[in-house]
## 1
Amino acid sequence: MPDSPQDPAVGQEPAVRKNSLGSLLIGVLLVAAVVGAFIFFRPPSLAGDRAKLDAPLSAAQQQQADARTITMAEVEANDGLEGRPAWIAVNGIVFDVSESAGWEDGEHRGVRAGTDGTDLFVSSPHGYDFMARTPILGRLAG
Ligand code: HEM
């Protein structure tokens, strides 16, 4: 049957039209596979998961924690402001975030150094690995 005058493929060889349709189909399938894989394999968010606090510290980290007892008043004094060190308590361990990425002047995504950040940490998307690679200062008293 001859092509109608509105057909954009008028004048093209049937083999050429078939080829470009095939490439389009492969392209669409590839995009769908990539998007599908991204959705399927995306790690679940850890926001709100209290169990992440149970992640064990290494023996060396336990030793560091046990070596010093720190009061909440000491944590509060190290708020990262005016050049002071930036400390944060998470689940009874006091961490030094003075040199941590994204903690300039003791502030990180609405969290302030000099506080107990346990609940905010639980609601954050972090796993405990973020704390485990942060220097430990000691254990919180009480
Ligand atoms: C909405 C909440 C939070 C979000 C979206 C978030 C996101 C991030 C991101 C993207 C980083 C990488 C550095 C950067 O680009 O800033 C980071 C680092 C870090 N975050 Fe959070 N964060 C949140 C809350 C918290 C809380 C509550 C704590 C602890 C109490 C925390 C502890 C840390 C630490 C220690 C690092 C540095 C880790 C390193 O040195 O590699 N974050 N955070």
## 2
Amino acid sequence: MEDVWVYILSASSFLILLFLFKLQRSSKRNLPPAPPSLPIIGHLLLVKEPVQRTLQSLSDRYGPVFSLSFGSRPVVIVSSPSAAEECFTKNDVVLANRPCMLAGEIMLYSNTTISTAPYGPHWRNLRRLTTLEILAPHCLASSLTVRQEEVRLLVRSLYEVASSARDSGCARVEMRSRLQEMSFSIIMRMISGKRYFGAAADAGDAKVARQFREVINEIFELSGTDPGDFLPVLRKVVDLKGRERRMVDVAKRSDVILQGMIDELRSRRKRSDGDRKVESKMMIDYMLSEGYSDDIIKGHILTILCAGTDTSAVTIEWTMSLLLNHPNIMQKAQAELDDIVGRDCLVDEADIHKLPYLQNIINEALRLFPPAPLLVPHESAKDCMIGGFDVPRGTMILVNAWAIQRDPKVWDDPTSFKPERYEGLKEDHAYRLLPFGMGRRSCPGVGLANRVVGLTLAALIQCFEWERVSEEPVDLSEGTGMTMPKREPLEAMCKARECMIANVCARL
Ligand code: HEM
């Protein structure tokens, strides 16, 4: 009995000493300001959807660098260009880690993927493979036909729907699912060399593609903020809302599909010739020939699909919505296309860099509606300073790109859609406009995204007249989700332009 008391007393003394030590350390530190918080859960109840808006109003009160506690996890939120610049220049290496999340642990191969792996040799290796091979300009050049074909198929399907509309040649079309399917097909073909949707796909492949899309949607849904990530003690007691069980189930289903893709390609390689050189630079093919393990390849496919599909589709959907609300800007973009590309042929990827007004439109859409409004969370590997405040090791860093890009101190008339604001500007917009992030963990898919988004928008604007489905402006409210989708999927009235029918639309 005496032993028990000795044990209890020494454990309590230890805890009290630890508490005092922590208190003394934190009182010496100049931590970023924070709102009052509750014990154990910290500020979790304060963080309401849409998170970027909540964090913006908190930064109005607590400043451009402030801190929160998500349960036991310290978080620092950065909402000014100068603080973001500090993060991605002098602190770039220290902040190149990612916080370890349950979703990545269970669904993304124990956080071994390029987007979730901690900063270190394994991440560097995957990053080099991605930027110097898979998404490098020479590889993007070899997959040019994939993108042009998929955009042509999108235009053709819209033309068919519009031209079969009685009398008017004008049809009401739902854009989100079309854009998601196109974007998914482009990336799947670049990964595996195979078309999973449409006439060229067999029924089995189409089924796999549909299952895969479902799995990806579930991964997105389950990757949002999970209380279990911030209250690990609670997680051990209850599986909050059965999330962990669902994650395990989704991980199993996605693994079966991904393994099937790898096995199919492996046997295709064997059948054709064991020793042949990799003639097609498809991603799986390339990774197999470089000797990567199946788990690393599966994680990479999943990451590229998750990171690359919805981001591009959502950007096109937001841009089209903005253009429908600003028909004069749509007309100006059409005039630029007529002038540079003409009306006798469909716009080509090589034309995109000759269309500065279109590029300004895309920049402006990404400024107002960045698909990753808080970028992707970073984590400090060591103590560091941001904006004159101490940021301890192990702090999660959220850069509120959405708030920076709408800050009236940074942009004139920040909530208006004005592509002209970039005209004649010599300065670059780094740290004011950062939809792809900055520094070593910034988006490696920016080149592909610019090509897909630019080419698709150019083709849609060149070939069709677009109108809203009613007098009302298109609703621009944000929904919830990882890639900040529009709350309502975009619907629009679509009609082939007379001048484009004979030479382009009817020949696709
Ligand atoms: C409009 C389209 C896109 C936007 C706005 C976007 C934005 C971003 C952002 C903000 C990050 C995080 C940066 C940070 O942590 O600071 C990121 C990371 C990433 N993106 Fe993109 N992205 C887009 C398209 C793509 C595409 C097409 C791909 C690939 C096919 C891709 C692959 C990735 C990967 C692999 C990462 C993780 C990088 C790492 O952790 O090292 N993204 N993206």
## 3
Amino acid sequence: MAMHRLNLLCLTMCLLTHAVQAQHLGHSEYQNDTYQYIEQNGLVVLEAEHFATQHQTTQRKWFRFSQASPPHPFADSDTLHYANASGGQYIELLPDTRINHFDPLVRGENFSNIPGKVAVLSYPVWFETPGKYYVWARAFSTGSEDNGVHVGLNGEWPASGQRLQWCRGKHQWTWSSAQRTKDNHCGEANTITLDIDRPGLHTINLSMREDGVELDAIALTKDANYHPDEQVLVPTLAPSVSLPHKTELLGIRNYTRIFYAQSDFAVTADTQTKRLSYRTNISRRDAGIRHITRVRKGRGNFPNSNTTWSVTSR
Ligand SMILES: [Ca+2]
Ligand SMILES: [Ca+2]
Ligand SMILES: [Ca+2]
């Protein structure tokens, strides 16, 4: 893959984020460049509130909550649950209009059995170890219609990531890796998985199944027997970053990891014309609508398409 060949490591260009505007909740623009997640010894731990981007928010949207959050204006059947949330923060998918089984079910609005359709979150993660990962998430459920989400990878939604479900552990933060099935609505334990096919950057995705879901943290592990119990886990963060935000690809070779870029790209240098060609393929780095980066390619204008183009080298 292009990124693997080039060993581009940009710890900063990546997480130029889509601002999740929630001023009425007292949140400012999300600066997630300080949260660069990596796999460590077969384990990834993410704070759910540290998503890089959010898409498809017309019907429902994830909001961050903490002790400092003022009352919010959305339909919601319960109170805030920041106590015992890791990092003191969590996210909730609001408004929550389907509280119980008797409330109207509106597909594509307060329920989606199809993943990737409503309120899609992205979490870029750098993996050293490919393979099968068991996905756990920590949720706070107070009812029967706020306890299911979908898990995806690189903008795709494999069957093994759909319908992550919580049943036990109501009214407290509870980890689950159970996939809801037709015959078991509570889900089969340890069955939500993602296959990381190669080392490098991958994007973990979440999307709505039921509105009102509250999420605190997400964990991915290669250990089939792992169980976080009711623990707060320590996030697996990359070491601190020294390189500045990058706004163009010139000098990109100094960066060896890209957590977020608008596109995949390869680079080849033509020493005779002293031009660098970047081949882009917008497919793997994120899900949903883009326009979420300010990266400028060299001295040229932003390309109008994702086909081959070039920029002038220094
Ligand atoms: Ca709620
Ligand atoms: Ca609900
Ligand atoms: Ca949290």
